[in-house]
UniProtKB/TrEMBL annotation:
Residues 12-118 form the Polyphosphate kinase N-terminal domain. An intermediate of this reaction is the autophosphorylated ppk in which a phosphate is covalently linked to a histidine residue through a N-P bond. One of its GO terms (molecular function) is polyphosphate kinase activity. This is Polyphosphate kinase. Residues 341-505, 514-684 form the Polyphosphate kinase C-terminal domain. The active site is at H444 (phosphohistidine intermediate). Mg(2+) binds at R384, R414. ATP binds at N50, Y477, R573, H601. It comes from the Bacteria.
């Protein structure tokens, strides 16, 4: 097959539209009756949070391209920036309407059945109205700041993602020619987004949105003026950071400077409450914000449903039957409760699977090393960590104990920059040597090296993972880790850190592959070897699990393998630019996405090679940015026991018939069809059940 045939845009999904398809799958979870009620509300919040970031980064980037006059089609699906923005707007309006229809007409009525409800001002009794007025006067009014808009006071620079109320006022001082005036009042983020009324006689819990209370009593802020209209709106701004690394004397200061700008970027979306807005005011906002009509979203309900994250927690405490049954991460199968982690890793490789198995051994790995008098040095990469991170505390304690501690803190981890700047400062104060990575590359790899001297011999222990060193997200994201004392892995880890922190040529590694570029090169080589093995033995098989697939070089190589007869299963949670099932192109490729209780985050790459192939874990998705613009690691699994476990995990994902969707040749996703005789299988729940069974066996 000629190479050019594989370049046709009809063989590829557009990256942005594929992401919207993923967010639609998230939204579908709010309609899934098998999910507990508050979990369905939570999926609405996740959908909103995802969409905010999408606008702040992806839509903002496309708008920048349009402003710069860039009108060339993107290289895969052949859409120009303008065409992409148009299709995004069309799709997103449908999804947002679906989101609020679900909220208003499906979930709120179900919530009412549990004697929990959100009420409007016109539903309050006289006594309740008096209570809300008192709350406004005493708790809200003192915090509010009305901002007049006139010739002397220009339209204020409103904070990104803040909810605001635009008020059109009529001057009552001149009754013959009353003049209209405009003012803006920001809904204070420091106050609770919703307020609970006293429980009524029937025992119903009633809640009110803060902005509804402010809107109702806002006339009190404008004495001598008549309120003509009140319009609630929200702006989303461009929040992508432009870091000028070349010549930046201090990357830490450069990041801090850019963080301040993020709050005030160009507006890219305007959300406005549908039920009561002033059309003239909308036109005014469009002009002053320089926003196109396609970027306006009329919302049938409360703006910004991310408040449901907090509401979820409140209701979880009130009635835990409305949320998922608690699933407690179990002791890892490879680690006994009383076993010394380093002694165990000296004997064999240790595999960890989160959140089914506890993240604690990873914390112990750092904390035990910090306190072990034989440990000489700890080196670690940090991309995202939790607030109050025990990993950070362990590293600080290690430095205070006199060990050589080197930490690469990735300051450019999107939307975690501020946290990471703070962690970098704290680590430096504790005596750690902090480095910030490489120019123009994000260090996304997850690796820790512990160097210990035992009986006058130097030994090295390495932890490699698919996910961040974050003990909190490890309860929500599915990730994997390997702890090994394999000598060559230790040499690779040493060379990796020396390459990042010093001046040396890129090392030749024994086992690991490193991006930029090498991971792609090695994956293409593995696919070529699979094609060759299939020509000889006729049993070619590739299974790959990742978050996203966008890299055209790898997609074309997978198309080539498919055309040579290799059977390929891809488990891609999010973006997938590859289209499966196209005759003559990808008919031997199947793509599925699993969106469930936990966020599928692990990356697994398996090549059969007539039964002699390897299975690899990685920090990298198969995206162009991961292949070219990030420091990533991919590493092989050699232990037969761990290989067997990984095959079982992949097999479960491929058999999932509850939370899995499959992509068709047109790029659309559908729930897996289950045969009547087939048992239901939720792969995530089954993995937890298996972890529990192991825990029971050990007891």
């Amino acid at each position: 097959m000629e190479q050019m045939e594989l370049d046709h845009p009809r063989y590829y999904n557009n990256r942005e539209l594929s992401w919207l398809a993923f967010n639609e799958r998230v939204l579908q979870e709010s309609l899934d009756k098998r999910n507990p009620l508050m979990e369905r509300f939570k999926f609405l919040a996740i959908f909103s949070s995802n969409l905010d970031e999408f606008f702040m980064v992806r839509v903002a980037g496309l708008k920048d391209q349009v402003k710069a006059g860039f009108n060339k089609p993107e290289n895969k699906a052949g859409l120009t920036p303008k065409e992409q923005l148009s299709k995004i707007s069309e799709k997103n309006h449908k999804l947002v309407d679906m989101q609020y229809s679900t909220y208003q007409h499906v979930l709120l009525p179900m919530l009412k059945e549990h004697q929990i409800t959100f009420v409007a001002m016109d539903e309050l009794s006289t006594m309740q109205l008096d209570a809300m007025e008192q709350y406004f006067d005493e708790q809200v009014f003192p915090v509010l700041t009305p901002m007049a808009v006139d010739a002397y006071r220009p339209f204020p620079m409103l904070l990104n993602k803040s909810i605001n109320i635009a008020v059109v006022l009529e001057d009552t001082f001149d009754e013959e020619e009353p003049a209209e005036k405009t003012a803006i009042v920001q809904v204070p983020a420091v106050l609770d987004r919703y307020i609970e009324l006293e429980v009524d006689e029937e025992g119903t819990r009633k809640f009110m949105m803060l902005e509804d209370i402010i809107s109702h009593f806002i006339y009190k802020m404008f004495q001598g003026y008549k309120v003509k209209s009140v319009t609630e709106f929200r702006i989303t701004r461009n929040a992508d950071m432009t870091i000028h690394e070349e010549g930046a004397r201090d990357l830490l200061k450069e990041i801090e400077k850019e963080l301040k700008k993020r709050k005030w970027g160009a507006a890219v979306r305007l959300e406005i409450k549908r039920d009561a807005y002033d059309p003239k005011l909308l036109e005014f906002l469009l002009n002053v914000l320089e926003i196109h009509r396609k970027d306006v979203y009329e919302i049938d309900g409360p703006l910004d449903l991310t408040f449901l994250f907090k509401f979820y927690k409140d209701m979880e405490e009130y009635n835990d039957s409305l949320v998922y049954e608690a699933l407690i991460p179990q002791p890892p199968k490879d680690v006994g409760s009383d076993e010394d982690l380093f002694e165990l890793a000296s004997e064999r490789d240790v595999f960890l699977h989160h959140p089914y198995e506890s993240f604690q051994p990873v914390v112990d790995f750092v904390e035990d090393a910090a306190d072990d008098p034989d440990v000489l040095a700890i080196k670690q990469t940090l991309y995202r960590v939790s607030g109050g991170s025990p990993i950070i505390e362990g590293l600080k304690r290690a430095a205070e104990n006199g060990k050589q501690v080197t930490v690469l803190v990735e300051l450019k981890a999107r939307f975690d920059e501020e946290n990471n700047v703070q962690w970098a400062k704290e680590l430096e104060k504790a005596g750690c040597h902090v480095i910030y990575g490489m120019n123009y590359l994000k260090t996304h790899s997850k690796i820790t090296l512990v160097v210990r001297r035992k009986k006058h011999q130097i030994e090295r222990f390495v932890h490699l993972g698919t996910g961040n060193y974050n003990d909190q997200t490890a309860k929500l994201y599915t990730d994997m880790g390997l702890i090994t004392s394999n000598r060559k892995f230790g040499i690779d880890a040493t060379n990796f850190f020396n390459y990042l922190s010093g001046y040396t040529e890129k090392p030749a590694y024994h086992h690991i592959s490193m991006a930029p570029f090498d991971i792609r090169r090695d994956l293409v080589h593995h696919i070529d070897e699979e094609i060759e093995a299939h020509q000889k033995y006729g049993n070619g098989r590739i299974i790959a699990k990742m978050n996203s697939l966008t890299d055209k070089v790898i997609i074309k190589k997978l198309y080539e393998a498919s055309n040579r007869g290799v059977q390929i299963d891809l488990i891609v949670r999010g973006i997938c630019c590859l289209r499966p099932g196209i005759k003559g192109i990808s008919e031997n490729i199947r793509v599925r996405s699993i969106v469930g209780r936990f966020l599928e985050h692990s990356r697994i790459y398996y090549f059969h090679k007539n039964g002699e192939g390897n299975i690899y874990l990685s920090s990298a998705d198969l995206m162009t940015r991961n292949m070219e613009k990030r420091v990533e690691l991919m590493f092989p699994i050699y232990d037969a026991h761990i290989e067997s476990r990984l095959h079982q995990i992949l097999d479960l994902h491929l058999k999932d018939n509850l939370k899995a969707r499959v992509q068709d040749e047109h790029g659309n996703y559908h729930y897996v069809k289950r045969a009547p005789s087939e048992e239901e299988l939720d792969s995530q729940l089954e993995l937890f059940n298996r972890a529990y069974m192991v825990g029971e066996d050990e007891e």
